[in-house]
Every structure is written in structure tokens, then in C-alpha cells.
Specification:
With 113 residues, the protein is mainly β. The chain has no helices and 6 strands.
Length: 113
């Protein structure tokens, strides 16, 4: 339990406690990720989960899946498991490149499920 939490694996509970996600500077599959954090500016600090309905930089998130578009931009999204407590999926907005293939669930140890 004192080991770094994986990005998120199916079965993890994301509503019961805060999880630490990838920070700026971390790399997944050799590609640096830019992550957004609720009400925070991302500057290497631990990120909190984004929930549907939460706002990121003042912009409300909609329920999104890989391939969906946000504000006309097709960002790559990491979606957590199939369903999270049958509630809207928590997701990470990955800035930068938008022309990459859909991402799989990634873990801190750089493994994909």
C-alpha cells in the first residue's frame, strides 16, 4: 500500500480516496504527458482524479471516451476501467499530440494491461 499507485486499474476505487497520477515530466511509453488537475496548475505536483462534472481550468468536462472530441479537439483520453461504480468515468486530459492512437490503461511501471 506504500508503493506508488498505478495510474488506475480496473477495480481500483477512485471515489474513496485521492490517487496520485502521472506528473509533468513523467513519461509513458516514451511520450511525455501533459496532465490537467482540478483547480490546480500542473507544475510537477501530484495530480488528482478528474471527475465528470468537475471543472478543469474553468471548463466543464463531458463524459468522454477515447476518440470523442472536447471543444472540437480530439484529445487522447485515459479512461478508467470499463465502468467506475457505474458512474461517469474519471478521465485524464492529455494535452499536446492528438494524432496518436487510442491509449490503453497505463501504469506507473510503464505496463499496459
Amino acid at each position: 500500500k506504500d508503493k506508488p499507485l498505478k495510474l488506475l486499474c480496473i477495480g481500483d476505487q477512485v471515489k474513496s480516496k485521492p490517487l496520485e497520477l502521472l506528473c509533468i515530466g513523467d513519461q509513458v511509453k516514451g511520450k511525455p504527458l501533459e496532465l490537467l488537475c482540478i483547480g490546480d496548475q500542473v507544475k510537477g505536483k501530484p495530480l488528482e482524479l478528474l471527475c465528470i462534472g468537475d471543472q478543469v481550468k474553468g471548463k466543464p468536462l463531458e463524459l468522454l471516451c477515447i476518440g470523442d472530441q472536447v471543444k472540437g479537439k480530439p484529445p487522447e483520453l485515459l479512461y478508467i476501467g470499463d465502468q467506475v461504480k457505474v458512474k461517469p468515468l474519471e478521465l485524464l486530459f492529455i494535452g499536446g499530440q492528438s494524432n496518436v492512437s487510442p491509449l490503453e490503461l497505463l501504469c506507473f511501471d510503464d505496463q499496459s494491461i
